[in-house]
Structure formats: structure tokens, C-alpha cells
UniProtKB/TrEMBL annotation:
Encoding gene per record: ACSS1
Species lineage: Eukaryota, Metazoa, Chordata, Craniata, Vertebrata
Family recorded in the similarity comment: Belongs to the ATP-dependent AMP-binding enzyme family.
Record's keyword terms, sorted: Lipid metabolism
Protein name: acetate--CoA ligase
Domain Acetyl-coenzyme A synthetase N-terminal per the UniProt entry, residue ranges: 54-109
Residues of the AMP-dependent synthetase/ligase domain: 111-441
EC number in record: 6.2.1.1
């Protein structure tokens, strides 16, 4: 089984410059004595008059067209070059980036790294069962993605369709997202903790004909009946024609006429899948708000602008370097998981951790034991979890070696002073910069940065 053992409303930030420029300052301030802009950002060698940190920051704001054009040409692989960098007018609701360009997001996240470093680890799946992590190389993830892409195509999924994914954080969930991107279909990832009713509402709104799920989820030592949730949800979703079911556990579940065992179907497919050329402004994915402030709203993210922003902020906000292990513990059902567990790290050829469990299973030292065992360099978690762990005392943190950590991140609601101070002093030992990021209501992808 692929999961148990390894087999071989559109919003693209108009304020890119402001958000990423702030992130540059975070890194720039860490090396005041001797600083080389070209070493920090190779594209800056072509920026006239830029030789220092402040000059690079100023250039990114005052010459945004030149800056983003150079970064996009260097950081993304294009099938067809773009004609214009941006065409944005918020007063008219017009936001367009890199028009005329064609690319494929999965190629940018997989193929180009396979060409240079096929055996580099792409994913470390930190399963719910502590100490049983599984690693997947870029070559293995590309093969998995291609099999899934071919499978979806064989079952009639085409460019412009939307596939709903209702899975825990696991390698097949990542491959499902990338397979959709490869064939030009949008994906709609629904948090696996949502109810059948919440899932059904999102399937109907996205008009999905295809759902990908697992037989059961495992989280915090408990079994989650995800297939049963899907069965209940699709009863009120007339558009659903097929459900692909991966096997996370060895327990059998009831299968209907519309159900297919995902691993069995994937083995019938070739490991090469032709990527679809996508326009820069084609839809990459839908992601629905939580619904806590009303009816869930489906937000649309497009291809090039989103991928570039995710990749650049991942590298510079978190000071990610080649060879680092990036530990974002957010579920892939949220925008944080999309951007900083999947797309940002993979676009940069990084190694990213998929965390399936909870902060307190089997005990409150779970995060920090994982940091020691996987030698995580950047740790990115939520203030809610930090406040929870404070209650258990410092001993659960200090029990484990955290010298691998170089950057700490906080995401979700704004972090309170007590939690920040504990995070900085106890977890980071006062030596790790804390990147504090938070989202607007509905988790719209807009990054604000506060460096404390």
C-alpha cells in the first residue's frame, strides 16, 4: 500500500513588494557587517546601483516591475515566457501577474529538481505513530504524481475540472495536489476534520465529479472514519461520479459502485505523465474559508504569481537554505499547509515535513522529539499549540536537543506576549529569530510580518 510502505474569489497579493520587502529586512538584519546582495539574491547582480541590503530593499519597492520580472524569470521554469509582469488595479478589481506566460506548477515543484538531484528527500512523513517517519525522494514523488495524473486523466478528469481532496496530511495527499496541477485540474483540499455536511457543501460549490480520500485517518492515536464521512457527504452531491480511496490503515471499508482503490488503480498507470501548459492566471486551486463567519467562501489562487510568492517567502522569510529540513506542522487543509508544507518548499527543492499527529501525542514532547530526530532547522507552528504546550511545563522542551533549529515561525492568530516570550526563550533558547505571521479573516493568502 502506498501509504503504509513505499512503492517504487481570486486573490493574488497586489502588495507583493511590501510583504516580501519586509521579509528581506528579517534576513538582512542578521548579517550587518559584511553583506553581498548578489550572494543573497543572484538576480540583484542585474539591478543597477544595488550593492547593499538597504539598496536591494529600496529597489524591490521603487522598481517593482524590474524586480519581479527578474525574480520570476530566474526562479520559475517557463514553457512560454510572460509578456507583462503585472496588470493590477485594485480599484477595478483587476489583478494579473505574468500574463502571456505558460508554465506547469508540478514541473516547477518536481521535474526540474529530479533532473539535478533525483535522490534528494522531498517529503518526510511524520506519521501519527511516533518514530515511524517515512522519506520520499523527488524521484519517488514525481513517479507517484505522474501515476495519479494519468489515473485522473483515464477517468475523465480534464483541464478546468476541480477535484476535491479529503485526506490527512500524507504523501498521497501532496501527490494528489500535484497531479491535479500536472493535468490542469484545480484541487479543492478540505480539512479532514470537517464534518460530512461541511465536506458536502464544499464539493457542491466546487462542482467536483471526483473525490480522493482514505479509508481511515489516524490522528492522536485515534481512528477517523474518513471514508464514511465521504459516503455520507456524496449522498447530497449529484455531481460526484467517482471516489478514489487510499488505504491508510489495513482495515477494510465498504466500497460502492463509484469507489476505486487508489493504490490498485495507480499501479496500472505509467510513471510518465505529460504536463499541461497552463496560463499564468489559470486556476491552481480553490480553498474554502472555515465558515466561522458565515457561509464558506471559495478563494481562487492562480498559477505563477502564487507559486513565486510562496517560494520566495519560504526561502527569505524563514531563511531557508539548501539542505535544511523545513518543519511546518500545519494541516494541508489550510492555506499555511498549501503554501509552506507543499508549494513553497517543493518549488525551492527543499525537504519538507508532513506532520500527521498532534502536539501532545503520545506526550507533550512530540514536537521537540521530532525536531531532535529529524534535525529540523525551521519550525513553523500555531500560537494555539504554543499556549497549550506552555501548560505542560518547560521540561518537555528541554528534554530534547534543539540545536538544529535556526528559525521559529508562528502562524494563525496574532501571538500573545507570554506565548512569544516562552517560544523565544525556551524553545529557541533566545538564539532563533521568531517570524510572526498571521492571516486575515477567512485565511486569505496575505502575508504580514512582524519581527519582534
Amino acid at each position: 500500500m502506498w501509504l503504509l510502505c513505499r512503492c517504487t474569489a481570486k486573490y493574488v497579493p497586489a502588495s507583493f513588494s511590501r510583504g516580501v520587502s519586509a521579509s528581506f529586512l528579517h534576513v538582512l538584519r542578521r548579517s550587518r557587517s559584511s553583506w553581498n546582495s548578489a550572494a543573497f539574491m543572484p538576480e540583484s547582480a542585474g539591478f543597477e546601483g544595488v550593492s547593499g541590503r538597504d539598496a536591494l530593499h529600496d529597489y524591490s519597492v521603487s522598481h517593482s516591475e524590474s524586480f519581479w520580472g527578474a525574480v520570476a524569470r530566474q526562479r520559475l521554469s517557463w514553457i512560454r515566457p510572460f509578456d507583462a509582469v503585472q496588470d493590477c488595479d485594485l480599484s477595478q478589481g483587476r489583478i494579473k501577474w505574468f500574463e502571456g506566460g505558460k508554465l506547469n506548477v508540478s514541473v516547477n515543484c518536481l521535474d526540474r529538481h529530479v533532473h539535478t538531484c533525483p535522490e534528494r528527500v522531498a517529503l518526510i512523513w511524520e506519521r501519527d505513530e511516533q518514530g515511524s517517519e517515512v522519506r520520499y525522494t523527488y524521484r519517488e514523488l514525481l513517479e507517484m504524481t505522474c501515476r495519479l495524473g494519468n489515473l485522473l486523466r483515464r477517468h475523465g478528469v480534464k483541464k478546468g475540472d476541480c477535484v476535491t481532496i479529503y485526506m490527512p496530511t500524507c504523501p498521497l495527499a501532496v501527490a494528489s495536489m500535484l497531479a491535479c496541477a500536472r493535468i490542469g485540474a484545480a484541487h479543492n483540499v478540505v480539512f479532514a476534520g470537517f464534518s460530512a455536511e461541511a465536506l458536502a457543501e464544499r464539493i457542491r460549490d466546487a462542482q467536483s465529479s471526483t473525490v480522493i480520500t482514505v479509508n481511515q485517518g489516524v490522528r492522536g492515536g485515534k481512528i477517523l472514519e474518513l471514508k464514511k464521512m465521504v459516503d455520507a457527504a456524496v449522498q447530497s452531491c449529484p455531481t460526484v461520479q467517482q471516489v478514489f480511496v487510499a488505504m491508510r490503515t489495513e482495515n477494510e471499508v465498504e466500497m460502492t459502485h463509484r469507489d476505486f482503490t487508489l493504490e490498485e488503480e495507480m499501479l496500472k498507470e505509467d510513471v510518465v505523465c505529460e504536463p499541461a501548459p497552463m496560463d499564468s492566471e489559470d486556476v491552481l486551486f480553490l480553498l474554502y474559508t472555515s465558515g466561522s463567519t458565515g457561509k464558506p467562501k471559495g478563494l481562487v489562487h492562480t498559477q505563477a504569481g502564487y507559486l513565486l510568492y510562496a517560494a520566495l517567502t519560504h526561502r527569505y522569510v524563514f531563511s531557508y537554505h539548501d539542505g535544511d529540513v523545513f518543519g511546518c506542522v500545519a494541516d494541508i487543509g489550510w492555506i499555511t499547509g498549501h503554501s509552506y508544507t507543499v508549494y513553497g518548499p517543493l518549488a525551492n527543492g527543499g525537504t519538507t515535513v508532513l506532520f500527521e499527529s498532534t502536539p501532545v501525542y503520545p506526550d507533550p514532547g512530540r514536537y521537540w522529539e521530532m525536531v531532535e530526530r529529524l534535525k529540523i532547522n525551521q519550525f513553523y507552528g500555531a500560537p494555539t499549540a504554543i499556549r497549550l504546550l506552555i501548560k505542560y511545563g518547560d521540561q518537555w522542551v528541554k528534554k530534547y536537543d534543539r540545536t538544529s533549529l535556526s528559525t521559529l515561525g508562528s502562524v494563525g492568530e496574532p501571538i500573545n506576549t507570554e506565548a512569544w516570550e516562552w517560544y523565544n526563550r525556551v524553545v529557541g533558547e533566545g538564539r532563533c529569530p521568531v517570524v510572526d505571521t498571521w492571516w486575515q479573516t477567512g485565511k486569505i493568502e496575505n502575508l504580514y510580518l512582524q519581527f519582534l
